[in-house]
Amino acid sequence: MGAFLNLLASTALLALAAGAMRETPPSPASGPDGLMAWPDLLERPRPAPTTTIAYGEDPLQVVDLWLPDGPGPHPIVLMVHGGCWQTEIADRTIMNWIAADLRRRGLAVWNIDYRGVDRGGGYPNTFLDAAAAADALRDHAARHSLDLSNLVATGHSAGGHLALWLAARPRLPADSPLRTANPIPIRSVVSLGGLPDLEEAARPPGSGCGTEVIARISGGRFAETSVPRLAPLGHPQRLVKRPQAPRIPTPDCQG
């Protein structure tokens, strides 16, 4: 499992940084440091998932399933996008390049979306969406020959926080509105530049997402939403630190 987590962490990080796809030629890097800038990624041809599955009635309550070739059973990665928990900044499609790269390597991907704080999310709805999307995986595993025995969750930035939080759900306080029965077991987590400590991010100058966003996503209820308060998770974790947050074209968010 440790070797697999290291492979997933390095593969996902490289795919996120470069939009890695064997069938797509590299895009020119326009950043002043010779690296890709944000538009370089977004202007690449965007690969498509195998299918999209709804887990609720809102247009954002959907999951993209990416299936590799072959009959399975397929190892599965539960993927969560970032964007400072704000739908205006990013949705699940920002992870398409990573998902396509993992699919090419023989991994199925369950890439979830959720309502951000700017689209009916925040506390508790963003967490309830993420939980419902994760648990919906059980309903579709048999049909698509998905192996849930070693489910790995991964996410970038705000998605790294939610991936870790999903693994911590069994440790939620008994009276928490976020607690649901029988959460899907997550065996390990890879967090790519994640923001797990909401309590620390709420203190000025904050995490780069702005303290107002942290207040809205946490509801001030850090015992339920901040991952360190729920530790230990009891499962392996790989926390990949971002050397410097990418500059996203919004006034106060880089997550």
Which properties best describe this structure?
single chain, 255 residues, alpha/beta, Rossmann fold, 7-stranded mixed β-sheet, globular, disordered C terminus
Brief description of this entry?
This protein is about 30% helix and about 15% strand. The protein is built from 10 helices and 7 strands. Helix 1 (about 1-20) crosses helix 3 (about 95-105).
Characterization of this structure:
The chain is an alpha/beta fold and 255 residues long. It has one domain: Alpha/Beta hydrolase fold, catalytic domain (Rossmann fold). It contains ten helices and seven strands. It has a seven-stranded mixed sheet with strand order 1-2-4-3-5-6-7, with helices on both faces. Helix 1 crosses helix 3.
Layout of SSEs?
Blueprint: H1 2-18, H2 38-42, E1 51-54, E2 62-66, E3 74-80, H3 96-104, E4 108-112, H4 125-135, H5 137-141, E5 146-156, H6 158-168, E6 188-192, H7 198-201, H8 211-218, H9 222-225, H10 227-230, E7 237-240
Parallel strand pairs: 3-4, 3-5, 5-6, 6-7
Antiparallel strand pairs: 1-2, 2-4
Biggest sheet architecture: 7 strands, mixed
Q: Could you tell me the number of beta strands?
A: 7
Strand content: 15-25%
Helix and strand sequence: HHEEEHEHHEHEHHHHE
